[in-house]
Amino acid sequence: MRAALADGLERIAPAHPTAVAVDLILAEPGDADDRLEAAFAHTPNSCSPAICSPMAAAGRIPSHAFRKYAVAVGEVHADLDKYDAVSRDLPLEKAAGHDRRWALSLEAFRAVQHADILESPDDLTLGAVCIPSRIADGRTIRIRYAPLAMGGLPRVSILELDNNPSLASRFAGKVVFAGTTAQTATRDRWMTPYSNGIIMPGVEMNANAYETIARQMFLVDAPLSAVLAVCFALAICAGLAYAFTSNWLSYLLALLVLAAAQAIPAVAFEHSIVWPWLPGTLATLFAASAGAAWRHLLVRRQLVRAEDETDRYRQAMHFVTHEMKTPLTAIQGSSELIGRYASMPEAKRKQMAELINSESKRLARMIENLPQRRTPLRRPDGNEARAFPAA
Questions:
Q1: Three-state SS across 314-372?
Q2: What is the C-alpha separation between 308 and 328, in angstroms, rounded?
Q3: In three state form, how does the secondary structure of the chain look?
Q4: What is the mean pLDDT of each run of 10 residues along the chain (391 residues)?
Q5: What is the layout of strands, in order, in the sheet containing 70-75?
Q6: Which of 353, 227, 229, 242 is nearest to 287 (CA)?
Q7: Strand partners, 23
Q8: Which residue in 98, 107, 97, 52 sits closest to 75, CA to CA?
Q9: How far apart are CA 26 and CA 5, in angstroms?
Q10: Which of 165, 147, 158, 208 is closest to 180 using CA atoms?
């Protein structure tokens, strides 16, 4: 590896790259050390790596022969998500005992900017660039990886440089990250959000971290107060969809609110804000479920009330119609007797007429006192709540 690295550095040196960050462990002596040392001597702004983790008593640093040519020594640790083992974050500092080092990508950027790192509890500042990286979060930044579907970051192998020396011109004025990328020769290969089954070597991850810093494409978390406010607004909108609309329209509006909950994280990401997907989705689903349940219970209660009123009305009508038979029978019998017997005594006829009159008045009073149906109850969707008794 040292001979190959020396060969690569010798070939790109005439192109005058802005800086070279070497992601190789050069702690112990090895073959081709003299040649590699000479290559370092002719490489501007070289940054060598070191492994430095809190689990080690002391960090492994490059041997003095190489370190004297490096403007900085960085660490190359990467964080993996505990749920899916995908590398999304990169700690910008690591400490072992009293020894603390910045990340290799940050040291490379500092070498290019020729500026000191100014620290605050919430960020790091290099010249005009402010890097959001809180101490409380472990001084981490999220890496904005170049999509692999678009080719990712440009790469040139040392073998390609040997076969085509003109490729060295591609390194002119560029920051170069040199390291091992062969799958059988490197151990620091990790999954990234764009991996899709293809693991990425550590040197390429550090290069992506440098691009994130240099282009200031920082991803920050959405404020908790804003997330809570939006979740509350989504829940209110989902509830209002069932309170003021009916039928399919309420469900359509609830689906639109749910679609908005899905779109908010994507829109926020376009503005470099990491918006949690779960809170808004759950708030919308719970509110929509509660609205639908409320609608169902309210309609059910009104339907039961309408059925009870129908039963009472039917019973009252049955009683009244039964009671009407008595005056109707008297009126019918009296009128038949008057019509059949023309020679009926006047006193008897008068008695029959009075009976017909009294029974007619009685029937009129019964009709006046008939129970009246109330106005049909209205459901929340605007339709009548009806009951249909069996025949």
A1: HHHHHHHHHHHHHHHHHHHHHHHHHHHCCCCCHHHHHHHHHHHHHHHHHHHHHHHCCCC
A2: 30
A3: CHHHHHHHHHHHHHHCCCEEEEECCCCCCCCCHHHHHHHHHCCCCEEEEEECCCCCCCCECCCHHHHCCEEEEEECCCCCCCCCCECCEEECEEEECCEEEEEHHHHHHHHHHCCCEEECCCEEEECCEEEECCCCCCCEEECCCCCHHHCCCCCCCHHHHHHCHHHHHHHCCCEEEEECCCCCCCCCEEECCCCCCCCEEHHHHHHHHHHHHHCCCCCEECCHHHHHHHHHHHHHHHHHHHHHCCHHHHHHHHHHHHHHHHHHHHHHHHCCEECCHHHHHHHHHHHHHHHHHHHHHHHHHHHHHHHHHHHHHHHHHHHHHHHHHHHHHHHHHHHHHHHHCCCCCHHHHHHHHHHHHHHHHHHHHHHHCCCCCCCCCECCCCCECCCCCCC
A4: 87 89 78 82 71 40 70 81 83 82 90 90 92 90 81 87 92 90 68 77 90 92 94 94 85 94 94 93 93 85 85 82 80 80 78 83 78 51 46 38
A5: 70-75, 46-50, 19-23, 175-179
A6: 242
A7: 179
A8: 52
A9: 11
A10: 158
Both tokens of residue 79?
Answer: 């964080």
Which residue type does 13 have? A
Location of structure tokens 């073959």: 31
